[in-house]
User: What shape does this take?
Amino acid sequence: MVALLGLCPLLAVSNSVVNSLGLGLATTFALVFSNGLVSLIRHHVGHEVRLPVFVLVIASNVTVIDLTMSAYFHELHRTLGIFIPLIVTNCAIIGRAEAYASKHPLDRAVIDGLFMGLGFSLALMLLGAVREVIGAGTLLKGTELLFGEAAKGWTVHVFEDYGGFLLAILPPGAFIGLGLLVAVKNLIDERAKRKIVLSAPLTFKPSRKPTTSP
Assistant: This one.
C-alpha cells in the first residue's frame, strides 16, 4: 500500500468490500501460482529472457483464473470486468516473481505469494469498506455474488435512510481514501519509531583528552 503498487484496481473495484475481496482473492491465486511456477523454472530460464517468460507465466495463470471466475462466479466476473485480465499488468506480481520467486525454492516462493496476496486483499478490503460505508451507508452489500444466495442477508446497513456520498464511490474517492490510509499508516510507523528511540538505553562514552607527547 505504501509502495503504491497495483493502483489500477483502486480506481473502480475498491468501491465495495465484495468487489475488493473478489479481486483480492483472484490476485492472491495469481501470486501463489505464478511464484510457484517461476520458482520451478528459475534454473531453466536465461537471464536475458526472464522477464518475458515471467509475464507469460503470469498471463497464463490469470487467464485460467479469469475463465474459472466466469464459469463459477459469473455475476461477480461481470462486475469486475476488465480488472481481472488487468491483474497481468499488476507490477506487484512481476515484482515478486523477479525479486523473490526467481531466487528461492518452491515452498518459500509459494508462502511469499500467499502472504503478499493476503496483504493486498486486506488493503483493498479496508479501502473498499471505507468507501462503501461513506458512499452508500452499507457494508458487505452483494455478498451473494461471491458466497451464493445464502449470503443475501449479510448486508449491514450502517446508516439508515442515508442518501449516500457519490464522491466516495467514484474514482477520485479511491485516491482520497488511499491517501488517508497511507497517512494513518505513516503516523503509526512514526509513533512506533519514537517508542523505540525513547525505550533505547542511553549510553555515554567517556571523552578522551588528547595526549601530547613530551
